[in-house]
């Protein structure tokens, strides 16, 4: 059972199947949404002082409304770029880089008021991008591919290597780009004006919008680039499987065909409904001009004369929380450097990261990811495993955290312990699907083929109604498989549904290469 998070933590996206189910309580919804974010490797920060500070600003802004909406929950997410958005369930996600970049409480309040305006206008009721961005193994592979390979780390989803830890945070950033709503120009204009009204009524300086809009524009440009990287990765994988379909064996054609159909489906689902983010928005200058003109016309709006809080510097720039934000940035820089192979840069940023644990455990458990990445790089695998264990004892560990911890156990031949770790992750995230392929791999290494087959059959039940033998029809456009079963078959090495029609020797041959057919096909290499 997940413990209750501090008051201002955020939640995440409910899958379509849940959205159509019977009504659930707010706490159940919050837990489900958070689990969806964690399954997508979005890294969250735990800091009571920052959460309480943001909550106080939100409360002050909402107090200006005669009929205010319910206060949103807020999640502070570890980010390398400026990011504040309202998700499709009306929760506000605040990135740590935004907290580092804002120059005053006025600017922070302006950013939050814009997001609150989307809630006031009920914009989120008209979008649910999580339904268009399914968490399938294909979509996860495409997002990982867009981030870029790490030396020594496999991109095969049924294999996890600690060498790829540096990519975890960037994968989470890609997912956040995809699931964050892309409001249209009219919605953004309306949110600008309402946000300005709220900011002014709360007694904040609306001149802060001048610097805020420039930061948002720069963030939009970077988000466009990341989304284009995802698109290119998807198209590249789709092209790569075509030669294998034509030249491989019958079994390889089925596996590669499933991949091709899935890639086309994912491209349509993930990208077909999304236009390049922010390309049709007004410029920062146009947005500021519109806000200024609007405020001049509404000079009679109620204004709170209460002095603005002096806590901005005390909380975000000084003290323990300020130190945490510095360590968070250092950790991100270390992981980015390691992922790109720049060991010099990683070494440069490591002291500020290591300082975060100089007196004990890190202030926020999410720093365990960056610390573990650094320890892996410096061959302190025992220390890295300690960070993996520490992270997975908290409620905000991501899917990769459990796989990270299980990888050490698997390397030592502690297969039952590794399976238990992955089951812990499945329980915390309330979903076994993201772990099934890896669990199959471990069962095979353990030598328990019946258990591996049972897990593969579970993939068939939860992932698709079609077996791998019928998935080839998807290439002809008859169905659109989720691909979970295809990846699990790749991990097992053969299709258990069709095995009764195959000679035992053929099954054994395929089992020795568990997943090699699909992995090589997706790389465009003939097995």
Structure in words:
The protein has 527 residues and is mostly helical. The protein has one domain. The chain is built from 24 helices and 3 strands.
Give me the strand/helix succession: HHHEEEHHHHHHHHHHHHHHHHHHHHH
The chain-level mean pLDDT equals 77
Number of domains: 1
Characterize the largest beta sheet: strand count, sense, and whether it forms a barrel.
3 strands, mixed
Total strand segments = 3
The dominant shape is: globular
End-to-end CA span: 44 Å
Extract low-pLDDT stretches.
Answer: 1-26, 241-260, 464-482, 507-527
Helix fraction by DSSP (H/I, runs of at least 4):
55-70%
Give the percentage of residues in beta strands: under 5%
Structural class: mainly alpha
> Could you tell me the radius of gyration in angstroms?
24 Å
């Amino acid at each position: 059972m997940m413990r209750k998070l501090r008051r201002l933590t955020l939640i995440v996206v409910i899958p379509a199947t849940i959205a159509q189910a019977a009504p659930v309580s707010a706490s159940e919804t919050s837990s489900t949404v958070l689990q969806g974010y964690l399954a997508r490797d979005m890294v969250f920060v735990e800091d009571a002082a920052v959460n309480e500070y943001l909550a106080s600003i939100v409360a002050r802004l909402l107090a200006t409304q005669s009929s205010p909406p319910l206060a949103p929950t807020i999640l502070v997410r570890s980010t390398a770029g400026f990011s504040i958005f309202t998700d499709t369930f009306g929760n506000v996600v605040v990135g740590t880089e935004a907290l580092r970049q804002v120059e005053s409480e006025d600017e922070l309040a302006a950013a939050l008021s814009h997001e609150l305006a989307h809630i006031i206008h009920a914009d989120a009721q008209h979008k649910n991008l999580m339904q268009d961005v399914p968490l399938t193994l294909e979509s996860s592979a495409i997002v990982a591919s867009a981030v870029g390979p790490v030396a020594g780390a496999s991109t095969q989803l049924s294999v996890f290597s600690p060498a790829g830890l540096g990519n975890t945070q960037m994968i989470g950033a890609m997912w956040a780009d995809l699931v964050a709503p892309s409001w249209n120009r009219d919605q953004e204009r309306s949110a600008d004006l309402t946000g300005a009204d709220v900011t002014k009524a709360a007694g904040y300086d609306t001149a802060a919008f001048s610097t805020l809009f420039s930061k948002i524009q720069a963030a939009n440009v970077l988000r466009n680039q990341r989304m284009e990287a995802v698109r290119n990765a998807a198209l590249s994988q789709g092209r790569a499987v075509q030669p294998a379909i034509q030249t491989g064996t019958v079994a390889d054609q089925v596996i590669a065909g499933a991949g091709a159909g899935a890639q086309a489906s994912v491209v349509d689902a993930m990208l077909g409904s999304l236009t390049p983010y922010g390309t049709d928005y007004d410029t920062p200058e146009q947005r500021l001009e519109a806000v200024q003109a609007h405020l001049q016309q509404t000079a009679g709006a109620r204004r709170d004369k209460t002095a603005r809080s002096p806590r901005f510097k005390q909380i975000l720039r000084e003290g323990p929380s300020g130190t945490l934000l510095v360590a968070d940035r250092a950790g991100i820089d270390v992981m980015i450097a390691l992922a790109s192979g720049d060991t010099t840069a990683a070494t440069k940023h490591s002291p500020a990261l290591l300082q975060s644990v100089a007196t004990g455990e890190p202030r926020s458990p999410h720093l365990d990811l960056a610390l573990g990445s650094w320890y892996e790089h410096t061959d302190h695998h025992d220390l890295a495993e300690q960070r993996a264990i520490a992270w997975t004892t908290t409620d905000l560990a991501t899917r990769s955290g459990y796989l990270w911890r299980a990888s050490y156990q698997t390397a030592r031949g502690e297969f039952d312990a590794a399976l238990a770790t992955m089951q812990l992750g499945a329980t915390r995230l309330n979903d076994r699907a993201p772990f099934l392929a890896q669990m199959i791999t471990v069962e095979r290494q353990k030598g328990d083929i019946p258990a591996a087959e049972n897990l593969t059959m579970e993939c068939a039940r939860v992932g698709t109604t079609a077996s791998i033998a019928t998935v080839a029809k998807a290439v002809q456009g008859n169905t659109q498989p989720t691909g979970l079963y295809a990846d699990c078959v790749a991990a097992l090495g053969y299709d258990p549904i069709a095995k009764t029609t195959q000679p035992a020797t053929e099954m054994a041959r395929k089992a020795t290469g568990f997943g090699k057919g699909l992995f090589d096909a997706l790389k465009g290499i003939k097995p």
